[in-house]
Amino acid sequence: MVDQSFADLSLAALYDSLNPWGPGDDFYLGLVREARAVLDVGCGTGRLLRRARAEGHRGRLMGLDPAAAMLVQARRAEPDVEWVLGDMRTRLWDGEFDLVVMTGHAFQELLGDEEIRVFLRAVRAALGAGGRFVFETRNPAARAWERWTPEQVHEVTAADGKPVRVWHEVQGGGPVGDRVRFTETYEGDGWPAPRVSRSVLRFLDNGTLRSFLTDAGLGVEAQYGGWDREPLTPAGPEIITVAEAV
Fold first, then answer.
1. What is the pLDDT along the chain (246 residues), one digit of tens a residue?
2. Domain ranges of the chain
3. Which CATH number is associated with domain 4-140+203-245?
């Protein structure tokens, strides 16, 4: 469920540099440590499951992602994990996991109501009794897209030692309904031209989000406004949700 720009092998190699390990990763790693069987949806380069395996997790770990280039990175680093190309429609699920996670705000890439319903029903099918689905979305009241401007440039170093600059720009002046369209531009020294990807994210309010979960047979066990399990606030940046199969 990562940005499809990372279907490019050279950009996939930059993913972990562009998204360094942080408090959110620690939050999810703590959950993975305690789980017997884990499915990471939109696993990207697989660093969450790779870290868990490196720390000694001996249960079942499966990473699922639609970008083959990302899974190339994952398989190179850790072959002792099930890396599966595709999405939740790739196979029939039968209650084999006690934890499903979806990190990196990837849930927001699900745009249509029916797309969300199909996805959540598949998550529910993948969870055994009492299993949990844990994910986060950006709180629309925090208006994160207002900070996605070309002036906010992030620079990382590519494998060849050269810098790569990345910036975002919202299209159309702002949200249309609960959707935000934006571009992500990559510019590297010596590149013939910048590479530009176009994306759309959906910003669901908490009431709508909870309704989708309930309809899929997932009850909200807890919600947090930050990675230290702070309570939700009206304009806090995150809506971190722990949902239980009911």
1. 344 444 466 666 777 778 889 999 999 999 999 999 999 999 999 999 999 999 999 999 999 999 998 999 899 988 899 999 999 999 999 999 999 999 999 999 999 999 999 999 999 999 999 999 999 999 999 999 999 999 999 998 887 788 999 999 999 989 999 999 999 999 998 889 999 989 999 999 999 999 999 999 999 999 999 999 999 999 999 999 999 999
2. 4-140+203-245, 141-202
3. 3.40.50.150
Number of Cβ within 10 Å of residue 139's Cβ equals 22
Cβ-count burial 74-100 (b if 16+ within 10 Å, e if not): beeebeebebeeebbeeeebeeebbbb
Q: pTM to 2 decimals?
A: 0.92
